[in-house]
Amino acid sequence: MYKTFEMELAGRTLRVDIGRVAKQANGAALMHYGETTVLSTATASEKPREGIDFFPLNVEYNEKMYAVGKIPGGFNKREGKASENAILTDRVIDRPMRPLFPKDYRNDVTLENLVLSVDQDCSPELTAMLGSAIAVSISDIPFDGPTASTQVGLVNGEFVFNPTAEEKAVSDMQLTVASTKEKVIMIEAGANEVPEEVMLKAIFAAHEVNQKVIAFIDQIVTECGKPKHEYESFAVPADLMEEIQKIIPAEEMEEAVFTDDKQTREANVRTIRDRLEEIFAENEEWLPRVGEALYQYQKKTVRKMILKDHKRPDGRSINEIRPLAAEVDLIPRVHGSAMFTRGQTQICNITTLAPLSEAQRVDGLDESETSKRYMHHYNFPSYSVGETKPSRGPGRREIGHGALAERALVPVLPSEEEFPYAIRTVSETFESNGSTSQASVCASSMSLMAAGVPIKSAVAGISCGLVTGETDDDYIVLTDIQGLEDFFGDMDFKVAGTHKGITAIQMDIKIHGLTRPIIEEAVARTKEARFYIIDEVMNKAIAEPRPEVGKYAPKIIQMNIDPQKIGDVVGQRGKTINAIIEKTGVKIDISDEGNISICGTDQEMMDEAKRLITIIVTDFEAGQVLEGTVVSIKDFGAFLEFAPGKEGMVHISKICKQRIDHVEDVLTLGDKVKAVCLGKDKMGRISFSIKDVAPENR
Questions:
Q1: Least packed by Cβ within 10 Å: which of 44, 111, 122, 266?
Q2: What average pLDDT score do residues 673-697 get?
Q3: Helices (H), 9-123
């Protein structure tokens, strides 16, 4: 027997089937939201994984093309590696749930979401977020939930919850908020420069909707939930912590970790660890736990100094930003480049421009998005943190950081009509010590300006951290957190935007949620810091976009023709357009609407390509003077090619003022001559004359 539960959610029915499928999983929920169907399961290993000091949670969002009635493209008709959207969905499911598992839990846990069908008006990503929360909550896996998630759009100034595809297309905001019963636990947003006060209202409006969903999940847990299983705790033994604190007094630990240089701090901690491992070398029980115990000691030391003494590891005040620097044009020959440095975090961004035909094709479950013309990629090599390991391509973190910066910059990009280019920016992490994703936003904004992309405004990003005490009102918000404060703190609250408003938010936390005062203070802090970065640093490096693209960037000429003439320009099997491309060296893209983009680096050749296309699509008129090449000679006259596929005939009597017996006496193949159109002859054929060209047109 299985049970079905239903509720109305944003005007559509959310139905959950429990016990219908996947009964061998620890917890499973077959989710139906509208006609979107997702199977969400939660499974845990029977025993903890040995040799690790973290909770091994794995989240999978599996997109199947059958869900939208498609067969995967390419030679291999089977889904391959996860798409970028799937990876980003994995992350957005993981972030609100991870903090609610026990910190000393070491059993492997997998949350898997299989997308079976997609109703474009009912988000499968949101359905999977709710499904994962339900699957874990009803399972026997220890979990301090449930959580609920809501998406918010802003259409014509009004909030829309879980917007449809049509509403998303015109929305000024795409916000996702996850909550527990008491607090907000995750925020993810992209927005068209939405004011801070509007964003805050949207966050807490979503939080209210989440409470209704949590009440619904509680009902399911009451009727179908399993008792939570016992597990082996991997908490650090209290007597080991006591012994370490005797060996390393608090003052010595403070001196070791409180420095503004990351390498010095790591060297200090490494010395302490070597010392402890030597002392406990004969203790087989404690020796393997020294590393985690030392981590806990560092964490306790840093948090106490920040929370009680308002002292940060590098000596800054609570709202002080690390030293900043910005410059442009440091890389020669690329289309645009900029470097942004904040303390020991340094990002170099390079912009590349290309024709719109090089926009990225998107093959996924979202049928509304088939391509994107702006791509932001983020790279994080091991040398940026002083480590050595082989590069295996971007991981989930790199893809997530790239997508966050991309989302932050999309709202200020010019339209395709204003700037007909595909745009790629790549952020290379030269050095990392906290919030490289937001440094990427700053570097990308300047790099785009340096490349001559007419963005509407500079965009800056900054991150705030948090250290909490025993009560909700015992906390400190930190502006511009470095790696140590992120590592030992409770929050990484990233906000990007312009002077006008917010363009992106991403909030990660390690505690069971944030109160409204914390969120409001974090938003206010990031606004203040963002303005300072733009006005005092970025604008001094480059204050506005350059008036034109650089000399190494491709130039683009746009023109529009009658769609009925597209076939004339393309020619049979592409013969005409290929001849133009071969002659001029340009790249030509034609849309079904007759919009033509001519792309190249040689302005003279681009103008020539435009001239040839204009000739091809323009009907001959009497009096029109054109230059042509002799391509064929007959007894009765010569044929001139004015453009690939566009020819006209000159009768032998119209070649010279004086009479000639043979065309070859005057013309040879390949000669370039000017001719005037005489209009149609008695048989309706267009004819030309060389001898009647006016002297001023010769």
A1: 266
A2: 85
A3: 84-97
